Amino acid sequence: MAMSVAENAPVTERAPRSLQHQLVLGSFLGALFVLAGIWVVLAGIPEFFHRIVPLVELTKSETNREGNDFLAAALILMASTAAAGGLAYLGYRLIQNYTTRGVRAGIFFAAVMLFVSLWIGEALGNRFDQARLGVMGMALTGGVTLALLAGTVFLFLQPGWARFMGTVEDQGWFHGTGYKPSQGVRVRRGTILAILALGLCGIITLIQHRAFGGERPDLGLPTNDWYWQVPFASGSERVSAKELADKLASKSDTEKKSAELLYKQLVGKDAPAEPDERVRLLRRAFGDRDEGSIGELRYFPLLFKIHMIVPTLMGIILLWFAWRLVNVPTFADFLIATEAEMNKVSWTTRRRLVQDTIVVLVTVFLMASFLFIMDIVWVRILTHPWIGVLYYNPKEAVQKQQEKSQW
Q1: Of the candidates 126, 157, 257, 388, which lies 20 to 30 Å from 370 by C-alpha distance?
Q2: Residues 71-116: pLDDT tens digits?
């Protein structure tokens, strides 16, 4: 009796990804989510309400034909705040699924490196575009940008970098849990207050010195936003901002100063204006109504109202840094030990403190008086003609000083 034996086909299982690959994948996916979320909050929503649903137009009334800019800005900030809260909650829920050590630090470093790489590419591209390099400039810009991005990926694939990110994350910089929160409370609070005082003084100083720029309605440029100019994306008839400013300055001597300010606002270190507003202003300055005579400049929005958002972000980062610093294990243990030593100090009573202070002040006064008297006595003795050790005549010294002052 023959029996048939069924052979089972071999089952191939997909090998799990290594921890290194999981770290790289989670870091870059998280970095893209963070960058996209920041853009939506700080630039996407304001740009949407400026172009698609212009709130300034909706706030116009019979008494205010120009619209209420303050109300429009307040509504945009409220919408951005709500979006920031929702995205933060979504990111918190997503990060709970990644248990790989170092992924939180990897997200931070990857986001910074990706942003810096794109920023360098944008700056080089605009330089090459202004130099009229054409296709060669585009190739150089793309090559440099891709090289920076590839270098970032290569760095994250190194085992040493993975260990570094794990070490940074172990210090607690990217976690919301405290380290021994019930110990050293008073010293920690004092340290936080000191850091906040120093940081807030710095932020206020920057605001007073207009380090973040500001709106300039007197120049016709009411906005203070941050845009990236897209390289090699403008029309063939585009004229550089410097040429436009020079043309405006050649009209009359009284307009030269305004032309310089306009140039600084357009391409200088000050924040550029909104693209549509910029083109409208240039056409109005030249008396040019032809829509095709000045090429449209294409921009990518990054930040809305720099002078308002940047100080706010700096304040939030300062709060997080102050709280996180006192929860770093090494520094927290030092603060806990400091408070433990302070608790061992035997503080004197108020009456004893007053008595000891009086004793110290009286002793210092007596010693100062004794030294002063002894100094005078020895000067008299040593300058006496019979001894002649010191030869000092106050009248001659004053006379010599007067002669030097005359020269």
Answers
A1: 388
A2: 777 788 888 889 999 999 999 888 887 778 889 999 999 999 999 9
Alpha carbon distance 232, 129 (integer Å):
6
Tens digits of residue pLDDT in 117-169: 999 999 898 888 878 787 888 899 999 999 999 999 999 999 899 889 888 88
The CA radius of gyration of the chain, in Å to the nearest whole number, is: 35
* Three-class secondary structure assignment of 151-220: HHHHHHCCHHHHHHHHHHHHCCCCCCCCCCCCCCHHHHHHHHHHHHHHHHHHHHHHHHCCCCCCCEHHHC
Neighbours of 376 (CB within 10 A): 10
d(CA 304, CA 227): 9
| Residue type for position 180 | K
Neighbour count for residue 252 (Cβ, 10 Å): 8
Measure CA of the first residue to CA of the last residue in the chain; give whole Å.
134
* CB contact at 8 A, 114 and 35: yes
Q: Name the token pair of 41.
A: 């909050």
**DSSP state, residue 240:** -
Question: 274-287 as b/e, with b when 16 or more CB fall inside 10 Å?
Answer: bbebbbebbeebee
Identify the bridge partners of residue 301 per DSSP, sorted by sequence position.
227
Distances (CA, A) of 8 to 11, 13, 115, 197, 208: 9, 15, 52, 72, 78
Structure tokens at 309: 């958002």
Query: What six digits make up the tokens of 175?
Result: 């976690």
| Residue 265 pLDDT | 52
Structure token pair of residue 37? 């979320």
DSSP code at position 59: T
**SS3 assignment, position 359:** helix
Half-sphere exposure of 300 (CA within 13 A, CB side): 11
Residue 162, strand partner residues: none
